[in-house]
């Protein structure tokens, strides 16, 4: 009777000791495996898939949660996204990188590098956010970009999730342009991250996403080819500076369809080196409108051609359809068509401005980006009476030529007096009676018509 408690205690201690050994062995094994977890090679050229990591999902679906993403909006999930990208990018068959619904993933400035072995889908179901403002941005990361896709071919970025740029703290920087009480603006802009940038990529599709509050441009496409953008919702406050919805530069064969954009700058801006661009069924505003340019800054050469904007609505915006160029530049804008566009209280519904300048100190120069063969057809609606409904301010030395107007009816949003359109050195034709009439067009062609660049005009 005396020995039984002692034996019982000894047995219990022995069992507890065995359990401790098992737990320690598991911890050691877990620690060992964790030490062997591969480091993402995302910033380097693609290489064979990292060994030792097998996602516990379908071989063609790579859920970032399976690679360690937490999704609480606070923890840094950058490494999990990099690892998921590395393996999905090297999959032999078309793969899907999945950002699941119901989570908020915080990731830092990252470059997703290609080319990938096969087509890849970046599917956003949840929410993706960056660090919260300039003070939270890592010092060794670029403040000019957030999510970059570099040298990607055959990629689709899609889903019904949200990309939130958390831009408010960037907009409030002292170096940003802010409208004062008398309409003046402070100096700007300064470095702020573009939310999503595609660089040197081809056959890219972006569809179905919602993106808001970017610190600067929401989407930017540089040196890309064959781009389809469809069913996007882009939203930022009307006074958020430099928050263009979609900007393209040196990019061709672009289709932008069925999207709603409201922001603090251009809904769509088309930069130098772009051609074969089709924009259709866009609801734009409040914003600065749909713009070609600005082009030719710092005496640079800029060429744009074959641009079509159709079947769209522009509302409560500073501009409608705009072409803007700096004095002193070179190159051309040609073969542009704006058709079937409704204007709803727009300050400058139709504008060509070859005197674009961000200050009052720009000097008159003798060269300019030429503007020719621009067609305006079936453009109707109302304009803000503070500005004329149509403004064609063309260069003294390089006039606008072959401007064409038909079925244009623009009425004042307030009052009954039609404002007179403004023309300067603009050669064009009214094919139907416009409201208000554009009686200031010059007939025919100027004495010396600038020739279209061979490398610009595309069939």
From TrEMBL:
Keywords: Cell wall, Cell wall biogenesis/degradation, Glycosidase, Hydrolase, Secreted, Signal. The keyword Hydrolase applies. The active site is at residue 288. GO terms for molecular function: polygalacturonase activity. Belongs to the glycosyl hydrolase 28 family. Pfam families: Glyco_hydro_28 (PF00295). PROSITE patterns: POLYGALACTURONASE. Residues 1-25 form the signal peptide. One of its GO terms (biological process) is carbohydrate metabolic process. Its main location: secreted. It is found in: Secreted, Cell wall. The keyword Hydrolase applies. This is Polygalacturonase.
């Amino acid at each position: 009777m005396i020995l039984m408690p002692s034996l019982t205690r000894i047995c219990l201690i022995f069992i507890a000791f065995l359990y401790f050994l098992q737990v320690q062995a598991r911890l050691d094994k877990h620690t060992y495996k964790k030490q062997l977890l591969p480091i993402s090679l995302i910033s380097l050229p693609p290489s064979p898939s990292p060994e030792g990591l097998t996602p516990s999902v379908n071989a063609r679906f790579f859920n970032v949660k399976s690679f360690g993403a937490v999704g609480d909006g606070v923890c840094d999930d950058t490494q999990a996204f990099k690892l998921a990208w590395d393996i999905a990018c090297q999959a032999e068959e078309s793969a899907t990188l999945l950002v699941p619904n119901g989570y908020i993933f915080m990731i830092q400035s990252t470059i997703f590098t290609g080319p990938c072995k096969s087509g890849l889908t970046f599917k956003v179901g949840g929410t993706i956010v960056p660090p919260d403002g300039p003070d939270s941005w890592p010092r060794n990361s670029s403040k000019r970009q957030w999510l970059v896709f570099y040298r990607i071919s055959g990629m689709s970025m899609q889903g019904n999730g949200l990309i939130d740029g958390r831009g408010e703290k960037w907009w409030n920087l002292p170096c940003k342009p802010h409208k004062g009480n008398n309409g003046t603006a402070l100096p700007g802009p300064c470095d702020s991250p573009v939310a999503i940038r595609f660089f040197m990529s081809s056959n890219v599709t972006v569809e179905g996403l919602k993106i808001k509050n970017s610190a600067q441009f929401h989407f930017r496409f540089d040196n890309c080819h064959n781009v389809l953008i469809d069913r996007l919702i882009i939203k930022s406050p009307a006074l958020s500076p430099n928050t263009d919805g979609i900007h393209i530069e040196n990019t061709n064969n672009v289709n932008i369809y069925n999207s709603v954009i409201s922001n603090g700058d251009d809904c769509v801006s088309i930069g130098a080196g772009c051609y074969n661009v089709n924009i259709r069924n866009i609801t734009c505003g409040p914003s600065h409108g749909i713009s070609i340019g600005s082009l030719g800054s710092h005496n640079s050469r800029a060429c744009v051609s074959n641009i079509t904007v159709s079947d769209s609505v522009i509302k409560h915006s500073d501009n409608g359809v705009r072409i803007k160029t700096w004095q002193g530049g070179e190159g051309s804008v040609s073969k542009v068509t704006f058709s079937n566009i409704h204007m709803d209280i727009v300050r400058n519904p139709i504008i060509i401005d070859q005197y674009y300048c961000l200050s009052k100190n720009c000097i008159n120069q003798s060269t300019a980006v030429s503007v020719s063969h621009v067609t305006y057809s079936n453009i109707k609606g109302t304009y803000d009476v503070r500005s004329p409904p149509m403004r064609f301010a063309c260069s003294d030395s390089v006039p606008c030529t072959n401007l064409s107007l038909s079925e244009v009816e623009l009425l004042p949003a307030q009052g009954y007096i039609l404002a007179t359109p403004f023309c300067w050195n603009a050669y064009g034709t009214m094919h139907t009676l416009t409201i208000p009439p554009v009686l200031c067009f010059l007939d025919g062609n100027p004495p010396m018509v600038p020739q279209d660049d061979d490398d610009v005009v595309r069939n």
